[in-house]
Design goal:
The complex is a heterodimer of chains A (269) and B (469).
Chain A: E1 3-13, E2 16-27, E3 31-35, H1 42-50, E4 55-64, E5 67-68, H2 74-79, E6 82-85, H3 97-109, H4 122-135, H5 153-167, E7 171-175, H6 183-196, E8 202-206, H7 211-215, E9 220-225, E10 228-233, H8 235-244, H9 247-252, H10 254-268
Parallel strand pairs in A: 3-8, 3-9, 6-7, 7-8
Antiparallel strand pairs in A: 1-2, 1-4, 4-5, 9-10
Chain B: E1 27-28, H1 35-44, H2 49-64, E2 86-87, H3 101-110, H4 112-119, E3 122-127, E4 130-136, H5 138-142, E5 146-149, H6 150-156, H7 158-164, H8 175-183, E6 188-192, E7 202-207, E8 214-215, E9 218-223, E10 228-236, E11 244-246, E12 249-254, E13 259-266, E14 272-282, E15 287-294, E16 299-302, E17 305-308, E18 314-323, E19 328-337, E20 343-352, E21 357-366, E22 373-383, E23 389-398, E24 403-413, H9 416-423, H10 429-445, H11 450-464
Parallel strand pairs in B: 3-7, 6-9, 7-10, 8-11, 9-12, 10-13, 11-14, 12-14, 13-15, 14-16, 14-17, 15-18, 16-19, 17-19, 18-20, 19-21, 20-22, 21-23, 22-24
Antiparallel strand pairs in B: 1-2, 3-4, 5-6
The chains are: A alpha/beta (269), B alpha/beta (469).
């Protein structure tokens, strides 16, 4: 069983420290929820784990089964089993979904593949893609469209889940995959994630909403405040935070909350 | 004689940079350009007096004209250090087996005989100055389609040849048209009779093999009323340290209701100056299309033109330019509306990388009396790194009010977010960049027949290989 281990992680964006010592361990088969007010560093953690070049790790480490990821680029991390479902998926004009996915799937499943080497057989790939799209209630025409170009918000998110389904990572981070969706779309996405969760995948769900967590009940809920994980509980904690907001968390951690206010003040100045 | 094709270690990613060891030219002119050389070429070809006179007059025009001081840097061309005529084979063959072995192997390696079997209606293969192989499907010949090299057309079809030759691009058009008119050799001549539709492309393949070679093919194409055809040309050369010069003239007439598409996949090695004049005249309700892909060469200056001569004529140019290290692609399109109710469209996509420079230079012109015309120009440039450069020079000349003129231009860089998105799905940086570039030109590539689209994407991928450190 694989383990994603985050130890005392410090991350800066353009010299500004955002994460100030995050500790978190996720095993394959577990579902973790990450909650916290806007600006607390949730998306920064997601990008830093996936290897975005703008997010610089200044201290601590990220490991999968003892292999340190700190210096690896996004593509190498992906081949080690890391996956980020983007909050705002990027449009790639002129690149067809199927062509992109065939390339991605081949690389992730054959991590040692060199550029220019053969891709996964077309027939096999098509069948698998068709099956997965059917499960997600997507029209087959989707595969021929340009990646995220002209997609509605719901279509983009479904596209992320399709990629998740095809790439079958060891660890998936869902960054507000339920945001900006109507309830039908949230249902499709939630069911999709639910179908994909299992013993082979560890999941970190970043969310403000409860729907995704209803379908995908977390074993652990973490609360982030000013770049640190300040509390960890079970599904009940997520429920309470939804109901009551973060006031009580701030009251329980006055020092961290003070840092949060200082940062806000600095940002306003 | 060795039959192995010599590999040049300096070739790098350019896969056509090999040369064959042929030294048994049946004729090779001395280097340099003067009236004696022109006389020699004309005599060797046993040409009629009018053509000989035409060549000499053209040479005078060439000498009299100053070098263009716009476009690219032409100062390094030494016109006296070039071979203007080289003949590697005494005759044009109809069977690949009869083509001299070295030359045949070159075309095998480029893949022409194989493509011919699969999806072409006819082929011309020009090696240095002369066409060494030619074919045309029998049924097309029976319908009266002519597809020969241009020298043969002068001998065998003198009336139609003389009616059109240099009528669209006269020698005085520009310095390099004058040069071509003086020393032209080879090229394709096509005549498509009224109402005849040629389903599969006719292909010509131009190959320079020698160092300091000048290739000056001359192409003349007449698509008669209601006829249609697609012609494709490809070009490659070995990578030599000394420069070569390619300066072609292509003249096209598309008569009423005719349709013609001319596709170029130019992939010269990085030591070739490619200075080409291409122009088509499109008559009533006809459609003329240029699909112009420029990937190779040191400097390309090429602006395929369409003159819309009668009402209802339509012109379309799709242009792709890829400028890599030490390359300047100065390419574009000209649309000249000479009649009312004509329309034109230009879509240009350029990519510059590794310090390369891609320029779009285009003209949209509406002549007096050409009312109710429409022209639409869209230029998109993608710059892959900070050393590379892209420019747009759109010229618009309008002499009527009642017209619609649209011009849009965009310049973009590969966004970091696009790279990260693709890389987070397991694509290497080079693969991700190549995919973004391929996507960028996709709207044009999808217009190509499948075989050429595959070829174009493969060439782009080769250009992108090893690009990321």
């Amino acid at each position: 069983m694989s383990v994603l281990k985050i130890t005392d992680l410090h991350v800066s964006v353009e010299e500004t420290p955002i994460l100030k010592g995050v500790n978190l361990e996720i095993s394959q088969g577990e579902i973790h929820a990450l909650m916290g007010p806007n600006g607390s560093g949730k998306s920064t953690l997601a990008y830093a784990l996936a290897g975005h070049p703008k997010y610089t790790i200044t201290g601590g480490s990220v490991e999968i089964d003892g292999t340190e990821l700190n210096e690896l680029d996004a593509n190498e991390r992906s081949r080690l089993g890391m996956f980020l479902a983007f909050q705002y998926p990027v449009t790639i004009p002129g690149v067809r979904v199927a062509d992109f996915l065939r390339h991605a799937v081949t690389n992730v499943r054959s991590p040692d593949r060199k550029e220019g080497e053969g891709l996964m057989p077309m027939r096999e790939f098509r069948k698998e893609l068709r099956d997965q799209m059917e499960e997600l209630d997507m029209e087959t025409e989707f595969a021929r469209r340009y990646l995220n170009e002209g997609f509605s918000g719901g279509e983009k998110k479904r596209m992320e889940i399709l990629q998740l389904a095809m790439l079958r990572p060891k660890f998936a981070i869902l960054d507000e995959t339920d945001s900006g969706l109507d309830s039908d779309a949230v249902k499709v996405v939630s069911e999709g994630v639910n179908r994909l969760c299992g013993p082979g995948m560890g999941v970190l769900i970043i969310t403000h909403h409860e729907r995704l967590l209803e379908f995908n009940k977390p074993q652990f809920t973490h609360v982030m405040l000013a770049g640190r994980i300040v509390e960890t509980g079970d599904a009940q904690l997520a429920h309470e935070l939804h109901a009551n907001g973060y006031t009580s968390v701030r009251e329980r951690h006055p020092e961290v909350a003070a840092e949060e206010t200082q940062e806000e003040a600095a940002a306003v100045v | 004689m060795s039959t192995d094709l010599q590999a040049d270690p300096s070739v790098g990613d350019y896969q056509f940079g090999f040369h064959d060891p042929t030294d048994s030219y049946t004729f090779k002119s001395r280097k340099g350009l003067d009236h004696e050389i022109v006389e020699q070429i004309s005599q060797l070809k046993n040409e009629p007096d009018w053509m000989r006179d035409f060549r000499h007059k053209s040479l005078d025009i060439f000498f009299a004209r100053p070098m263009p001081n716009w476009g690219g840097d032409l100062d390094q061309i030494d016109f006296q250090n070039i071979y203007y005529y080289m003949k590697a084979s005494d005759r044009q063959e109809k069977n690949w087996d009869d083509v001299p072995e070295d030359i045949r192997k070159t075309y095998d390696r480029i893949g022409i005989p194989e493509a011919e079997k699969k999806y072409l209606s006819g082929v011309k293969a020009q090696y240095e100055s002369e066409v060494v192989y030619g074919s045309l499907q029998e049924d097309l010949a029976e319908k009266g389609v002519l597809f020969t090299d241009t020298d043969s057309a002068l001998r065998e079809h003198p009336e139609i040849f003389r009616e059109y030759f240099a009528s669209i691009i006269p020698p005085a058009d520009n310095k390099f048209a004058a040069l071509n008119s003086a020393v032209w050799s080879g090229g394709s001549f096509i005549y498509v009779p009224p109402g005849v539709h040629i389903e599969f492309p006719l292909q010509a393949y131009f190959r320079i093999n020698s160092e300091n070679m000048g290739q000056f093919e001359r192409t003349l194409i007449i698509v008669d009323e209601g006829a249609s055809a697609h012609y494709v040309e490809g070009c490659t050369a070995p990578t030599w340290s000394a420069d070569s010069l390619h300066s072609a003239v292509v003249e096209i007439v598309v008569k009423r209701r005719g349709r013609f598409r001319y596709t170029t996949i130019q992939n010269w090695s990085n030591n070739v100056y490619n200075l080409v004049t291409k122009r088509a005249m499109a008559y009533g309700d006809s459609l003329m299309e240029w699909v112009d892909g420029n990937l190779g060469s040191k400097l390309t200056m090429k602006y395929p033109a369409i003159y819309l001569m009668e009402p209802g004529a339509r012109g379309e140019t799709l242009s792709i330019a890829f400028a890599n290290k030490d390359q300047h692609q100065d390419a574009g399109a000209k649309m000249v509306h000479c009649a009312p109710n004509t329309s034109s469209r230009v879509i240009s996509k350029s990519i510059s990388k590794g310090g390369g420079r891609a320029s779009y230079r285009g003209l949209a012109k509406i002549e007096k009396g050409a009312t109710n015309c429409k022209t639409n120009v869209v230029c998109d440039a993608l710059i892959l790194d900070s050393d590379s450069r892209s420019d747009t020079y759109p010229y618009i000349e309008v002499e009527e009010d009642d017209v619609v003129i649209e011009h849009e231009a965009s310049v973009s860089k590969i966004a970091e977010e696009q790279l990260f998105y693709l890389m987070s799905r397991g694509l290497s940086e080079a693969e991700a960049s190549a995919m973004i570039v391929t996507g960028f030109i996709e709207p044009l590539v999808k217009e190509l027949p499948m075989e050429y689209a595959v070829e174009m994407n493969r060439l782009i991928e080769l250009q992108m290989e090893g690009s990321v450190g």
